[in-house]
Specification:
The protein is α+β, with helices and mostly antiparallel strands. The chain folds into two domains: 3-68, Alpha-Beta Complex (DNA Primase, Chain A); 78-120. It is built from four helices and five strands, in the order H-E-E-E-E-E-H-H-H. It has a five-stranded antiparallel beta sheet with strand order 1-2-3-4-5. This is Zinc finger CHC2-type domain-containing protein.
């Protein structure tokens, strides 16, 4: 099986079962079904391990144990948080009538955008 195909199968499994995850380059981070701490999966191989309880396995084992994933456990997703923060700043800017304050908020928006992209290693333009 091609690595790209396995990656799509892995992502489909998590989306279809509404299991919260964060995808970063070649790794997928999710809550371990044993301890609810951070587990990492290499999407090219589907092998995963938990940093906390040292559970490990592959996608097949996750599929067999999908009912063990607890609903409502959310991971901190930096990209989602960045987008929400920038969205709120845009709302504040659009509602502002005071030009001086609007310019200051726009400056805060631009600096926040640049900083969060730097910290997340993203190469996007405003």
């Amino acid at each position: 099986m091609r690595k790209n195909s396995l990656k799509l199968i892995v992502l489909s499994f998590f989306k279809e079962n509404e299991i919260d995850y964060v995808f970063h380059k070649h790794d997928l981070i999710f809550s371990c079904f044993q301890c609810n701490k951070e587990a990492n999966m290499d999407v090219a191989t589907s092998y995963w391990h938990c940093i906390n309880c040292h559970s490990k396995g592959n996608l097949k084992e996750l599929i067999e144990n999908k009912e063990l994933f607890k609903r409502g456990i959310n991971l901190y997703n930096p990209k989602k948080e960045k987008n929400e923060l920038l969205g709120k700043l845009k709302q504040l800017i659009s509602k502002q009538d005071d030009d001086k304050l609007k310019k200051q908020l726009e400056s805060v928006y631009e600096k926040t955008y640049t900083l969060t992209n730097y910290l997340l290693n993203e190469k996007e333009s405003i």
